[in-house]
Design goal:
- The chain is an alpha/beta fold and 176 residues long.
- It has a single domain, classed as Rossmann fold (3-Layer(aba) Sandwich), CATH 3.40.50.
- Helix content is 33%, strand content 19%.
- The longest helix is centred in the N-terminal third of the chain and has 15 residues.
């Protein structure tokens, strides 16, 4: 399976990036081909709704989204990896998702997806905005959820390491 991992954490060694590393290791050990795009370390301009792309053409911005344009349509699975920032995905990952508009037609094909997210709070109800956005996105695109790792209670860098979540991310990748 070809997998594109889209990360949104601006902290290179942050908790969600740690989970991405474990997920990737598991997927690669199972023979999957994995490509990673770190949105926070990339230059992706937010969509401005100019409609120049017509939902299936070149964007007016010449930026790092071209990597996603090239790799996402041919991926069998997209992994969305993000910390929760003010009850939503990181703005860096959201900018990438908003730019899906320019490749909309190419994305409406059977594909799988996973959601891996971290957040500082411990209240499960705080997860709902991101989960709802993920589910609506999959529904719109006709994609299938292949699993989730939701990691509450992790805020400082490295907090994830003392939890069961790295193993869960690894096993999610391993058992795709």
């Amino acid at each position: 399976m070809n997998i594109l991992v889209l990360t949104g954490s601006p902290r290179k060694n942050g908790n969600s990036n740690t989970l991405a590393d474990h997920f990737i290791r598991g997927a690669q050990e199972s023979g999957h081909s994995v490509t990673r795009f770190d949105a926070a370390q990339s230059n992706v301009h937010p969509c401005i709704a100019c409609n120049k792309c017509g939902m299936n053409g070149p964007c007016i911005f010449d930026d790092d989204f071209e990597f996603v344009r090239k790799n996402l349509p041919c991926a069998d699975l997209a992994a969305f990896v993000t910390p929760m920032y003010y009850f939503g995905m990181s703005t860096q990952l959201k900018a990438v998702i908003d730019r899906f508009y320019a490749i909309n037609e190419a994305l409406h094909r059977p594909k799988k997806a996973v959601l891996i997210m971290t957040y500082a709070d411990n209240s499960p109800k705080k997860e709902h905005p991101i989960i709802a956005q993920y589910e609506v996105l999959l529904d719109y695109l006709g994609w299938t959820d292949a699993g989730r790792v939701i990691a509450p209670g992790v805020w400082p860098v490295g907090a994830i390491n003392a939890t069961r979540f790295p193993e869960q991310a690894y096993l999610l990748g391993k058992h795709l």
